[in-house]
Amino acid sequence: FFLSMNSSRKDCIQKANRKISHDVYTPKMDAVEFRKRGKEMIDYVANYLENIEEMKVFPLVEPGYLHKLIPSEPPEKPEEWDDIMDDVDQVIMPGITHWHHPHFHAYFPAANSYAAMCGDILSGGIGCIGFTWASSPACTELEVVMMDWLAKMLQLPNEFLSDSGNGGGVIYNTCSEATLVALLAARNKAIESHCKVNSETNQYWVMSRLVGYYSDQAHSSVERAGLLSMIKMRSVKSTERRMRGNVLEEMIKEDLENGFYPFYCVATLGTTGSCAFDNLEEIGPLCKNYNLWLHVDAAYAGSAFICPEYRHLLNGIEYAMSFVFNPHKWLLVNFDCSAVWFKDSKFVVETFTVDPVYLKHKNEGKCPDFRHWHIQLGRRFRSLKIWFVLRLYGVDGMRKYIRNHIKLAHLFESLILADHRFEIVEEVIMGLVCFRLKGSNKRNEELYSRIENDGRIHIVTSIFPDEDILYLRFAVCYQFATEEHVKYAYGAISEVTDLMFEDPQYQTSDAGLNYN
């Protein structure tokens, strides 16, 4: 039997070798070519960013434009680099929304810097997959140190530091992932706790009774996390766009009376719609008293807490079990890079640990294996770009960058307040200004449509649904933003408004509304 098997195996190998000899792999780009094309790409990116103002901030294309310009089948034979780069100019660039354009004022900033890009180049070159310490020790250990650096910059409680015994930080893709992971960890913690009290309780029955809470101003990812985890999430009606403790407590008591198990709450510092701040000093003690896992989402505003004058907005963070913010929004670190901390990481590790033999190593327990801290297994070397940015800018440089954005937001606010046609609808605290034309939502929809058609700047709208107030959002996003850029944006808005009110067709449709 073994002789026949070996003979058969030899035949297979000989046939495979004959076939392989006619199909030898030859890399299309070697180190010499990479050096040449890599330098060209650096020049291309630098030229793009230096001259970005010459482009339209928002692309003039229609859905489906790209399908008409790219073949429906992949190329069978290699193509030339120069042809690819020609297509970048002719096919890709016309469909790019330029997030780093001086006149991009939509959403929130997508942080970037040459330092971060250099870190990403090195990360890509090293190409490690850092799921365990053994898979790349430097990848794991630098991440631990960088998360401690960031925590100290924000003055987070010591319990969130890696040397606290139980706490620590980790880099995720986005805040949405952090919200889901925290919810899943809190869910398992709550199920285990209730099952210990009553050993006959079924864990799936307990899960059906769990309930979490979030503000009606919170990011949509909170609601999505509830859907994915099959947990009932209740929206807490905000007061002046902020979740208040008394309203939250009434809902908790109501659910307890109805036999539910409150276990999780998401507070937001810097809401997506208007950059409003929930009061952690109200919400935190309630979560502690009722044994709720408090997760704090500071996706955009969290970066500003490195400035002492804004740190008070984080007061009450000691009550949180988890905290997240996005360096890729406002800390000059490009996407993706979401910084997450857990006060007690064991709840996350216990939720996500699956231990196949092929992932074990002899140094387990001496350093985190981040594969146990989130959903995916593989992870990139993202801490490199944080390390590059923090060392090249220093904390002082980061503070100056953030303060400049906030100063420019207040400049835009002053220009809006000086124009009797407009009103500010939310206090300006960070780099976001929420404003509107006095009058109807229809009037503001018309203005927004005309601003977009004008094309000089790019902004977005939002709405306070309970108040039925539609407004426009102006975010300072450009890394090198100046007063001239802000004045240009206001000038464009003012001119479009003038033209709108001079338009006879518009006057007919919106007659009788004055500015005062």
TrEMBL record:
GO biological process: amino acid metabolic process; carboxylic acid metabolic process; catecholamine biosynthetic process; serotonin biosynthetic process
Broad EC category: lyase
Modification type N6-(pyridoxal phosphate)lysine: residues: K329
Any single Gene Ontology cellular-component annotation: cytoplasm
Keyword check for Transmembrane: no
Keyword Lyase: yes
Family annotation (InterPro entries): Aromatic_deC (IPR010977), PyrdxlP-dep_de-COase (IPR002129), PyrdxlP-dep_Trfase (IPR015424), PyrdxlP-dep_Trfase_major (IPR015421), PyrdxlP-dep_Trfase_small (IPR015422), Pyridoxal-P_BS (IPR021115)
Coiled-coil zones: none
Domain of life per record: Eukaryota
Alphabetized GO MF terms: aromatic-L-amino-acid decarboxylase activity; pyridoxal phosphate binding
The EC number(s) this enzyme carries: 4.1.1.28
Cofactor(s) it depends on: pyridoxal 5'-phosphate
Keywords noted in UniProt: Catecholamine biosynthesis, Decarboxylase, Lyase, Pyridoxal phosphate
SUPFAM superfamilies, alphabetized: PLP-dependent transferases (SSF53383)
UniProt family annotation: Belongs to the group II decarboxylase family.
Subunit structure: Homodimer.
Protein name: Aromatic-L-amino-acid decarboxylase
Organism: Girardia tigrina
